[in-house]
Design brief:
Elements lengths: L1 H10 L5 E5 L2 E2 L5 E2 L5 H13 L2 E12 L6 E10 L3 E6 L5 E6 L2 E4 L6 E2 L4 H14 L3 H7 E8 L2 E8 L10 E7 L2 E10 L2 E12 L5 H7 L5
Antiparallel strand pairs: 1-10, 2-3, 4-5, 4-14, 5-6, 6-7, 7-8, 8-9, 10-11, 11-12, 12-13, 13-14
Length: 220
């Protein structure tokens, strides 16, 4: 139960022309669509898929019906295509979580320890990891997409069509500008959601080997 609560807390973790996007995998593994304006959507999807590493400041607000105010946390989000996704929580109590190979690790103590999860929580972890990596083939097979684009601002909704996810989340809403994701809102139930804001994104930070060992420590 503690592991499930941890993951649900973390994951809750990516337009004025209104349109509906029905996505499917193309021969190249991208997303085929009929969006207007097509060029802007193509540029967004291609950029998200091309990023191999980044770091960003994040703030997380967790809303539940029985709480009067949201729980708020903040920290640094790091992604490296070869090493995984790292959520470094710095507020209240320092915690470091890694998502690697569709598995969650608690690396707070320096040595990653596998966090054993029930199936629904594991599916959420896989979703977060693949969204951060913008796995277009998986996204097109797992979600029905809809959204709108206005000038440089966009909004994208992802409604699960996969049986692995439709029982554990309602939908995901992503807000951004140009090729930057600014907010991810995960609606788990009508009374529970997590808003994940991303700022100060630095692409391809060029971490040193020491920094990689610090933020993406190897596991046995």
């Amino acid at each position: 139960m503690r592991a499930l609560s941890l993951i649900r807390s973390m994951t809750a973790g990516f337009f004025s022309l209104a349109l509906v996007l029905t996505a499917s995998a193309s021969g190249e593994g991208g997303v085929r669509h009929s969006l207007v304006p097509a060029g802007k959507w193509d540029a967004l999807f291609e950029h998200l898929q091309s990023v191999s590493s980044f770091s960003a400041q994040f703030s997380e607000a967790r809303y539940q019906a029985f709480r009067g105010t949201a729980q708020r946390f903040s920290g640094v989000l790091r992604f490296h295509a070869d090493h995984g996704v790292a959520f470094h929580y710095l507020q209240r109590r320092e915690r470091l979580f890694l998502i690697r190979d569709n598995t969650l690790f608690d690396a707070t103590g320096g040595t990653p320890e596998n966090v054993h999860l029930p199936g629904d929580a594991r599916n959420l972890i896989i979703a977060v990891s693949r969204l951060v990596q913008w796995d277009q083939k998986w996204i097109s097979e797992t979600f029905r997409l809809s959204g709108e684009y206005r000038n440089t601002e966009w909004r994208l909704e992802l409604d699960p069509v996969s049986n692995d996810l439709d029982d554990v989340l309602m939908n995901i809403v992503m807000h951004g500008s140009d090729t930057r994701i600014q907010k991810i809102i995960i609606h788990q139930t009508p009374n529970r959601r997590v808003e994940f804001s991303i700022e100060d994104i630095e692409l391809h930070p060029g971490w040193s080997p020491r920094e990689l060992d610090r933020f993406f420590p190897p596991h046995s």
